[in-house]
Write a structure and sequence with these properties.
The structure is a homodimer of 549-residue chains. The first copy, chain A, has 549 residues and is of the alpha/beta class. The first copy, chain A, folds into four domains: 4-116 and 249-318, FAD/NAD(P)-binding domain (3-Layer(bba) Sandwich), CATH 3.50.50; 131-246, FAD/NAD(P)-binding domain (3-Layer(bba) Sandwich), CATH 3.50.50; 332-451, FAD/NAD(P)-binding domain, CATH 3.50.50.60; 457-546, 3-Layer(aba) Sandwich (Oxidized Rhodanese, domain 1), CATH 3.40.250. Chain A is built from 17 helices and 30 strands. In chain A, helix 1 (12-24) packs parallel to helix 8 (304-318). The radius of gyration of chain A is 26 Å and the shape is globular. The N and C termini of chain A lie far apart (65 Å). At the A-B interface, helix 1, helix 8, strand 21, strand 22 and helix 10 of A face helix 1, helix 8, strand 21, strand 22 and helix 10 of B.
Chain lengths: 549, 549
Amino acid sequence: MQKQLIIIGGVAAGTKAAAKARRESPDLKITLYTESRYISYSACGMPYYIENLIKDEKRLIVRTPEYFKEREDIDIHIKHKVTRILPEENKVEVENLETGEKFIDEYSKLLIATGSRAFVPDIEGVKLQNVFVLKDIDDAVEIKKNIKQSKKVVIVGGGYIGLELLESFKAHDTDLTMIDRSQQILNTFDLDISSHIQNYLIEEKNINIITNESMKRLIGDSKSFIKQVETSRGKIINADMVILALGVRPNIELAKEAGIEIGETGAIKVNERMQTNFPDVFAAGDCVETINIVTDKSVWIPLGSTANKMGRIAAINITGGYEEFKGITGSMVVKIFDYTASKTGLSEKEAKELGYDYVIAILMHRDKSGYMPDAKEITIKMIAEKSSGRILGAQVIGKGDADKRVNVVAAALTANMTVKEFMGIDLTYAPPYSPSIDPILIAAQMLYSKLKKEVGSITPEELQKHLKQREKAAIIDIRTPSEFKAWHIENSQNVLFEDLEEKIGQANRETILCCEGGMESYLLTLQLMEKGYQNIRFVDGGMNFYKNL
Amino acid sequence: MQKQLIIIGGVAAGTKAAAKARRESPDLKITLYTESRYISYSACGMPYYIENLIKDEKRLIVRTPEYFKEREDIDIHIKHKVTRILPEENKVEVENLETGEKFIDEYSKLLIATGSRAFVPDIEGVKLQNVFVLKDIDDAVEIKKNIKQSKKVVIVGGGYIGLELLESFKAHDTDLTMIDRSQQILNTFDLDISSHIQNYLIEEKNINIITNESMKRLIGDSKSFIKQVETSRGKIINADMVILALGVRPNIELAKEAGIEIGETGAIKVNERMQTNFPDVFAAGDCVETINIVTDKSVWIPLGSTANKMGRIAAINITGGYEEFKGITGSMVVKIFDYTASKTGLSEKEAKELGYDYVIAILMHRDKSGYMPDAKEITIKMIAEKSSGRILGAQVIGKGDADKRVNVVAAALTANMTVKEFMGIDLTYAPPYSPSIDPILIAAQMLYSKLKKEVGSITPEELQKHLKQREKAAIIDIRTPSEFKAWHIENSQNVLFEDLEEKIGQANRETILCCEGGMESYLLTLQLMEKGYQNIRFVDGGMNFYKNL
């Protein structure tokens, strides 16, 4: 019998694996089953389709079933649901969703690429009209169709998709509310970072953001259309559309039922070759867990870029080759209007939860040479392990060029670099692209000083707590008098450089220095400590950072 | 006697070292001598000052002598020329250029940061009015002052500064000619890459570019103003301003005279701590050579970013600390109107000259997801060593986001990564920032296939040569009929996918496949070779790349 690869699922990992398997093995029979009527589409592009930056949903479709048949000799069966996997017999049971017909198909290798589904909580009203999730193209088309009649939209969940959708809806001039049950939007970032974006959304984009509250129930009108959202604390928000952006869950039920091992994260467990506990059964994409190479722990972070790579590697192994997927570093980027938020490796709270002994550096800096008229602010938070000095992660956000700098950190994480090694990376420089020392290198230098214990600092969050205590340090603000006048910490004093040492000498207690973005006070602290002043720290990220908390 | 650090030179390395030395050592006496009347300015910002993006030249000055005195207790003597170094006696001889007074000063440590100067050839007419170099702020001020009266400007030299100045002058609506004696502008890049930029400048920016010719002499009018440039082949070009952008030379004469060792590149030789052959004499910045960590060979690549880092490390070692400058990877970026050109590591021609056995990959690809309306083309050329599989370098150019992708490669070079390791880097993805697999990772995948000998290719330059031979391969163009009609290689045939195998079967000779940007034909070649077709290659970079040669 001809060897057959059966693939379940037709989005990123499934179609990537199909195409790669075909290139590796011209004679293999390749059959793909998917419940959906679309395959090979960019789910990540849907917010921009809703925004109408992309007019036609067909632009999101990378390849059609016809293309796969004609060009790759791959049989794609849309609207076909695999209802059972029989791994002992190398068989699957399939249902044609249009005819209801059921049949058995036999594989030599199976790839499970069932992806993930939007999480919908089991509460009153989730089935009302104009309550949507955004998971596939049909959802996107429905949302876009109804958007013109919608004046008030509530987005439940402040993750990547929810945040991207703010821009999509604002383009249609809707009134927007975002609800997040946690204390912050963009929950994978540290609170002191995400709070900047939260303030930006409230102040500059006029978004109503409600944190620390969940959605209690959805209230409909007489025609079963959504009318109001009630929150856990009893707030009532009017809405004529609700988007449930509460994250996704891996589609593992089929695998689990067949005895395929599920990992500790709740997604399918695979080895480095993307192989499950059944040697002929592979799995890839949003339905599998992987390793975070920073922590060496299992993680489930479903992303299109990862799914693509996993699909490629699964196909190589399925067709007799050998290639390993070593894991991820949790790199991501999200565009929130003209704000960019990117991350790789661990956040501070993740490092803390995992018990790392770490140091952090926070820096606000221009993304280009300061004299370039289009230079904009970016904020960097970088984390390193105290004992080893190796980098653990970075978050970069801002209106400036904040999207690719974390990729250098991602490379460093892959190479297990220390902060010192990182400082030696020869980054490009020209005034339209970066300052002469890239902010990410300055952040690394600050980390390095902290690792060497040359300077001490206080994080804005620690400072907030400190200010509530009875015994307070002397807080010395070294910004210009006009900056100080515009906004400053209560009881802080504005001290000119020439009076600084005298003031510190008089203080007779700990001194906390603060500047604009964290760099100047860091350098001053370094200098003062060399001079013998001991009881002195600077505020990480400076006042521009602090006031956004 | 109080210990004194004397620094010669006040731009990037000198002032950086002064500030860092002060932070490390509060009691050290620090004195800086410079011939210039400016210190601590951004030379790299001067093109944008001339363009008038920056109105006032003072914006380019980072720190003034007064600042250094008041804030850092550093004595800066402008218009003071160090005329002699006496390293055996730890003394320097200084001349006050305003009074003519000469005096001796004594150092415990000396830092030579004399930088570089613009090269001016010894030919007729270089002293004419309105013939400029661009090396310091006085030059920039003079050029900007005279620009309004200048209608025709000739830039001699197609390096970074010359190319940046095109934009500066075009903003003043001048008619521009660029002359380069070599076969290409942007000579540190490969010709097949720089030719794209050359075509862009000619076709879209209306720049007159003359390569393979040098400047023979400059011809003045009766008032000794520049009137014409005569080239080596006798072309006469009218000009009312000429910029000599012929590169720079290290200022080493002072050091050399004092017996300080000069390296094989002609710049000052230092160890990893920035120390010369005299233990108390350090050197940093444009006047020293360093190591290219890719080749482990000495190189002299003067750049502001490198000077800054060297200054910092010199200061740490001067003040009793220990830190090493490990070298560079030759990373650079230049903005040429709306075109970006960036590079790190080796170009193909450098790899060839150094005798490496290498493979290359060329890819033209959108910088973002193809469906995003603002997606733009970038071109990547990446090079790896055949035997070890390690990455040797990358060049990225284009109107799209081409400035930061090489930084990931720079990190990989620092970590000595192989192509395979590089492919595992978890880069960020969202449609507004990149395709789901970043083009730099696709280029790495292509390199990997070539390293594994899964595919063969022909570079556009090899194809040009091939087309001149009598025995030609069958050239099969798989683009759409309309693309083919618009432009194609002579004697190539446009073949639809369904007829491809038949055509290859009939060919009875080598087949060369070509597509738009190099990716599709690469994938097809991979597939066809798996099917057993052997005598088949694809064109690196595709037809979009080829037609720009």
